[in-house]
Specification:
This protein is an alpha/beta fold and about 300 residues long. The longest helix is centred in the middle third of the chain and has 29 residues, at about 170-200. It has helices spanning about 15-25, 40-50, 55-60, 75-80, 105-115, 130-135, 145-160, 170-200, 205-210, 220-230, 240-255, 260-280, 285-295, and strands at about 10, 30-35, 65-70, 95-100, 120-125, 125, 140, 160-165. The chain folds into two domains: about 5-170, NAD(P)-binding Rossmann-like Domain (Rossmann fold), CATH 3.40.50.720; about 180-295, N-(1-d-carboxylethyl)-l-norvaline Dehydrogenase, domain 2. Helix 5 (about 105-115) links the parallel strand 4 (about 95-100) and strand 5.
């Protein structure tokens, strides 16, 4: 495999995270192609200097590293191993970075299939949001063989501020990400409940935001998501449906382990209720709109 910025990189999935990662790679001088079902996203990448492609197989052709930044395990399987998938088109000895949140068993299965094809595989879920993706400042919770980390290092250094090497076996990175998503989902739901509770008490919610972010009750999610509510801006940076999926995975794992997850389960129901109200594809801060609707309250961006 080549070294440094001479690597050919393919990014599959050009949503807010994947597009930001591709942008970081282009900024650092990598040769980058991208594929997404949304042709406009591909065109945006080409306008930044990405290689023009017609389909997934062409995007992955000869790629030294493929970043698979799709939604779930099913999409990952299709993108990598389906008909015309990336695995069969990559350069010999290429490396797959699988970034979707998924059950650990799925990550282990994909790693075995990649290795059977002569490819390296990093179970490499990501965290940090779209802004940090575009800045190359993500956190990556990765597991895989040390030699594969070495081959992927230039790409990892471009897209992430922190790369945690969590062991040699695929599935460990996925498990760490699931713990993160339990906390993230609970914290979003709690932030939405808190700011709507403040509205119910006729408080100035902008002032509540100022006070709480300087106080012990603050969380990263409160600080990050409440501005969406204050601005009435529910364009999806991370959609409600992401957390119905991720908290659902947590519920499934907990049931399999006979381990109770009561707080995560309540948060899951809040996201399910929000999706049922027609906001599944909207920003996950829409949980606040769902609560406000139940309580007969009006938040910015809502109509009575």
């Amino acid at each position: 495999m080549q070294n440094g910025a001479t690597l050919n990189v393919c990014v599959i999935g050009l949503g807010s995270m994947g597009f930001g990662m591709a942008s970081s790679l282009l900024r650092d001088g990598f040769s980058v192609s991208g594929y997404d079902l949304n042709a406009e996203a591909v065109a945006r990448l080409v306008a930044l200097g990405g290689r023009p492609v017609q389909n997934l197989s062409q995007a992955a052709a000869g790629a030294d590293v493929v970043l698979c930044v799709v939604v779930n395990a099913a999409q990952t399987e299709t993108a990598l191993f389906g008909q015309g998938g990336a695995a069969e088109a990559m350069a010999p000895g290429g490396v797959i970075l699988s970034c979707a949140t998924m059950p650990p068993d799925a990550a282990r299965d994909f790693a075995a299939r990649a290795e059977a094809s002569g490819l390296g595989y990093l179970d490499a879920p990501i965290s940090g949001g779209a802004v940090r993706a575009a800045a190359g400042d993500l956190t990556i919770m990765a597991s895989g063989k040390p030699a594969v980390f070495t081959r992927a290092r230039p790409v990892l250094d471009s897209i992430a501020a922190k790369v945690y090497e969590l062991g040699d076996d695929a599935g460990t990175g996925a498990a760490f990400k699931i713990v993160n998503q339990l906390l993230a989902g609970v914290h979003i739901a709690a932030a939405c409940e808190a700011i709507t509770f403040a509205k119910a008490m006729n408080l100035d919610i902008a002032k509540v935001y100022e006070v709480i972010t300087a106080s012990a009750g603050n969380s990263w999610m409160f600080e990050n998501r409440v501005p969406h509510i204050l601005e009435g801006d529910y364009a999806p940076r991370s959609a409600v449906d992401i957390f119905t999926k991720d908290l659902g995975i947590i519920s499934d794992i907990g049931r399999g382990l006979k381990f109770p997850t009561p707080i995560a389960s309540m948060a899951l129901q809040m996201f399910v209720m929000t999706a049922a109200a027609g906001m599944g594809r909207d920003d996950d801060a829409s949980v606040a709109r769902m609560i406000a609707g139940l309580a007969g309250l009006e938040l910015p961006g809502m109509e009575c």
